[in-house]
Structure formats: structure tokens, C-alpha cells
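Hi support team,

I submitted a single chain yesterday and got back a structure, but I'm not sure I'm reading the C-alpha cell output correctly. Could someone confirm the output below corresponds to the sequence I sent? I've pasted both exactly as they appear in my results page.

Thanks,
R.
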Amino acid sequence: MMPGMLHPTSALAARPPLAARLAQFDALAPGSTTVVRTQSFAVAFTRTQPDTELRASTAGDESFALLLDTAAEVSAGGEALAVPARSVCLLPAGDSRIIAKSAGTIARIFALPCAIATQALNDEDYRTPLPGLRALPEAAPTAARNPRIFDVDQGEQHYFQTAKLMVSWSERTEPRDVSNMSPHSHDDFEQGSLVLAGSYVHHLRTPWAADLRTWQEDQHLACGPSLLVIPPRIIHTSQATGQLNILCDIFAPPREDFIRRGLVANAADYR
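Hi R., thanks for writing in. Yes, this is the structure output for that exact sequence:
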């Protein structure tokens, strides 16, 4: 197993400075859930069976449910809705209940603090908070009082936000052009890159510092369904290598640059 990689059955070593974490979900059993976290959000990835039931409770923050290839009955905010596959569902604060209709994949995303984060494979990484990260709003406005459903096959805007979270849904129907990559880094927030389908190679470069002992080799992490946690200042880009590839990037707090560019489908709800 390569450095920085997680497996649901593996013990975790202490994370070296600026190390990315890759949790792979290929071997996750039907009906099982794996949780991975950052300092600001947690992702619960579930391989569903018919009638798999997922419950959560958030005290004051909205959350997301990403339905890849199964429909579900979703109850939240005092409302019950039939949600089709290939949907991004925004859930209001409070109790939520999701019942899957078939075998498939559902990923839920929660702003922290949230009780589900204590179940994360990498919870130990955050026993001491990472310094210098952008903080979530302490008392952010909540726009959603009822569940909202976004069909990823409709419209051109595939970025969605809550008061504290932002998620994108990006699809490629062929391998990425290797002459058109996009290496970049972020100074003060972690990014989550969630592969829902297909295959990717995440290319990572750690900047050198004055202490040679902290230098790390470039990493080229091949993966299927997985979550990559990318720390600040790590140069990164993701290369789709399959024929149908779905990658969802997650940020907390929402990125103002994407909002200003008009990329976020529901940004008006928070202004």
C-alpha cells in the first residue's frame, strides 16, 4: 500500500506533514458505509442494497446526498421525496433518512462538527487541528427548509452549495487529454476529490521546504471509487483514465471565486 493510503481494515500510521490521504472504496461490501473526514467536512460513502437505510442528524447545518445509480426515498425537514438516481440532494438541518431502492452508491457530505466524523478512518489525523486553514462560518444562514433535488443531467451549472459546503459534479466520457492537465494548489483549505465512478490517477507534488527531511517524492495515485483528501499547498491534478468517469470536488467553506464566476446553481439562495 502506498504512503498516505487508507483501507477500511488497516491501522493508520501518523500522518506526515502535508501528506494527502487516499481512501479507496472498491472493496466495500454491499450495505456497508465508510467515513473519511477533513478538518471541515466528512464524507460517508455507502454501497447500497435494496432497502439500505441511512440516518443522520445535524444540529444546525445542511448536508448533501449524492445518488449515483440508485433512486431513494428521502425524508428530511418534515417532507418525504422520491429522489431519482444521478441526483444531488440538499438536505436541511436536522434528522434525515434515506432508503435506497436498489444496489448502488450514495455519498453523503456533512459540515463539521458532526457526530459522524468520529467514525472516520482518519479521525486520528485531526486530534490536533491543522493550523492556518480557513474557518467555517460560525453562524451561517441556512437557506433550505426542505430537501432540494438537483438533476445532474439538466442545466450547465454542476456546482452546488450550502452555507458551509460546496460540491461539484464533473463527468468525462473518455480519458483526459494528457496535454491539457491543470496542476494547482490551495493556500488555506483542504480539498476532497470524490471519485464516484470510473478510474483516475491523482498526480501530487509536495513543495520543498528548508528542512530536507520533510521532502516527499511526487505521487501518482491510481484509483477507482475513492476519496482523496488534499492538504493545502499540495500541487495536484486529476487524470481520468476510464470511459465513464465521475469526480466530485468538495470544499468547505464554499469557494467565493466559483460563486463570483456564476458557476454555482443555487448561489442566489445564500445571498
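A quick pointer for reading it: The helical segments are 256-260. Let us know if anything else looks off.

Best,
Support desk
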